[in-house]
Every structure is written in structure tokens, then in C-alpha cells.
Amino acid sequence: MALILHGYRYSVYVRIVRLVLAEKAVAYDQVEVNPFATEVPEAYLALHPFGRVPALVHDGFPLYETGAITRYLDRTFPQPSLQPQAPRRLARLDQIIAVVDAYAYWPLVRQVFVHDVVRPHRGTAGDAAELEKGLQGAARALDALEALAAPEAWLTGPDLSLADLHLGAMVACFAQSARGTEVLAARPRLSAWWRRFGARPSVAVTEPGLPITQA
Q1: Which CATH architecture fits 87-205?
Q2: Burial 67-78 (b: 16+ CB within 10 A, else e)
Q3: Range 3-76 has CATH code 3.40.30.10
Q4: 101: exposed, middle or buried (C-beta count within 10 Å: 0-12, 13-18, 19+)?
Q5: Which end of the chain is more exposed for a tag (fewer CB within 10 A), N or C?
Q6: How many Cα atoms within 13 Å fall on the side-chain side of residue 89?
Q7: Cα–Cα distance between 54 and 214 in angstroms, integer?
Q8: How far is Cα 53 from Cα 12, in angstroms, rounded to an integer?
Q9: Do domains 3-76 and 87-205 have the same CATH topology?
Q10: What is the DSSP string of 103-115?
Q11: Which of 36, 45, 32, 24 is nearest to 6 (CA)?
Q12: Which residues are paired to 64 by β-bridges?
């Protein structure tokens, strides 16, 4: 079956999909698309009319939006399953992913990671005010996720799920900041979760390195 992932290698949302594929040991081809380019190719806009990433094409079936893609992959390649069967655990998965997208992505990635890691790496100063806002927003989002996380090894219970991969791609950026690591360490359940998740082979094989352009 032909499986093609279109996306920007530095995108956390592309990495979420790559984590799913790695955990399921599914082979795929990857086409690089930079959504920050001056002109996004028309061929890509035919797949994703909003010009964002990722987009997936599976045997001619196109699909965009990360949540739709990851759930589709889990249904199409069912082993190992990344969605719990129990209704309440599944509801918690949906809730955690929604919280991550709405309240965690911006402070963890676009504020803390960009201004405390990416910009200094490129030799430019980060915006101190944006960094501080990010740290405050990250603390609030991580407090909520700390409360939602299951007492077992993974966010929704004893088994790895899409919720872990969704948050994990963002914490992989956030934890590169020393200040971010301090914020994470103050949340014991998430801190222990990150030690487990960060050691998974899927995290190593999907590591994109630091962005050299806009994050």
C-alpha cells in the first residue's frame, strides 16, 4: 500500500504522525513541504487547501488535519492499538489531545521553544516578554494535564496512546529549554511520564533536529 506523508520536517504536528507510524512500524514515503514558504506549491494546496501540514495520501485517499490522520492510521493499522477501548479512557484521550492543541502548543512550542532554544541557536535573541508569557502559559497547561494524566504509566492508562504521542512531540521541543525542564520537573506525574516517553525508540527515529528556519 502506498503511504505518503507530506509535511515540514520541523513541524511538531508532522512529528506526531511520524511517531504514530514509527510505533506501528509502518513504512511510508515523506515529501517535504514548507508551509512558511512564500508560495506553497499548488499541487500541495490541492491536498490541503489551507496550506498547512501534515497531509497524508494512502492509496490515493487524501487526508489532512493531524487528529484525523492519526485516528485513521490507528484504525487502518490496528496493531498496536493506540486508542483505548474503555469509553472513559477514550474520552480522556480526546480531552487531553484537545487541551494540548488549544492550550499547550502555543506556549510550549511557539513561545518557550522558539524564544529560548531556536532563536539563540540561530544567533538571535529571543523575545524575553514572549518567553515569560510562554512559561506562564506552559505552567497552566501542564497543571491541567498533570491533573488529567492517569496514575498508570501512560496518559490514559497502562498502554501507550495517541494522547502520549500528541503531547510527546511538543514536550520534546519544550524540554530542550532549561526553563522548560524546570517547569516540567515541578509536575511529578508528567515528569515521570516524560522520562518514559523520551526513552522510546520512536522518539529517537523521529528527531528532526533544531529548526534552521521559522519554527
Answers
A1: Up-down Bundle (1.20)
A2: eebbbbbbeebe
A3: yes
A4: middle
A5: N
A6: 18
A7: 16
A8: 10
A9: no
A10: IIHIIIIIIIIII
A11: 32
A12: 55
- Cα–Cα dist 115/163, whole Å: 26
**Cell for 145?**
494535564
Phi and psi at residue 192, to the nearest 5°: -65, -40
pLDDT tens-digit series, residues 29-63? 999 999 988 889 999 999 999 999 999 999 999 99
Measured between alpha carbons, how far is residue 52 from residues 35, 134, 152, 175 in Å?
Answer: 6, 23, 35, 25
Q: What is the pLDDT of residues 142-175, one digit of tens each?
A: 999 999 999 999 999 999 999 999 999 999 999 9
Q: Which residues have C-beta within 8 Å of that of residue 140, sequence separation ≥ 6?
A: 103
Cell numbers for 79: 496493531
